[in-house]
Amino acid sequence: MNLITLSFVLLLAVFFTPAVSAASGEDSEKILDNPWDHSPITVYIDDKNVPSHYSPTYYEQVEKALEYWEKGGNGNLDYTPVFEVVDSEDADIMIRWVENLESVEGAPSGVAGYANPGISGDRFVEVEIVLEVGNYQGKGWRQYGDATMLSISKHELGHALGLGHSNDPKDIMYPEHEMRDNINPILWRKYGGLIRAAGILALAVLLFLGISWQNSRRKRKKLEDKYFK
Questions:
Q1: In which domain, by residue range, is 209 found?
Q2: How far apart are the two ends of the chain, measured CA to CA in Å?
Q3: 135 and 165, same domain (yes or no)
Q4: Which of 61, 139, 180, 187 has the fewest CB atoms inside 10 Å of its own CB, making it the most exposed?
Q5: What is the tens place of the pLDDT at every residue in 8-53?
Q6: Which residues are catalytic?
Q7: Is the alpha carbon torsion for 218, 222, 223, 229 positive or negative?
Q8: Which of 137, 156, 150 is nearest to 24 (CA)?
Q9: Are residues 73 and 144 in the same domain?
């Protein structure tokens, strides 16, 4: 295998993806119109008791998902949520990760996260959100990339804000979402520099070969013009 081929194999191995669902609960437009009787809604993101394949970048995706809903989300909320991330398990919303919901908690195949609300009357008392860090694709287990974790986080937070599932495949609350990427965030942190360098080197080699071919072509044309008139 030559250098160019190896470089492209490395790049393709990191960027091509299968599909995954991010579902929980029963299909419905809304669970509650306005499930929280106070603001801000406190959120505890448990990045201490994490599974072996947890990536610190997942925390950032949850923060982005919180910001997404604060800015209006999918437009289906009747109120504007305000979140406050706290370092206490007594928060309104508690978010944690497991290695795989199917194997750890016996969830149906393909479920990537769930939101479990405690309800009193017409209000949420608390919501537990559980996200998995990977799922089975065929017989193999695959780590989720950051973009996929962001989608799952947005979806489950939507449930925690009172939304059910949507029938619109373009809506974040649609019960199944394609994986946005397949970049293993742990390996990317460790080998990302090497992979980027391999890609740059591959492009440099291709550029060099292209320039060499152009120079060779010009030389050949000069010889043809000189000797084959």
A1: 1-16+182-229
A2: 43
A3: yes
A4: 139
A5: 333 333 333 333 344 444 444 688 889 999 999 999 999 999 999 9
A6: 156
A7: positive
A8: 156
A9: yes
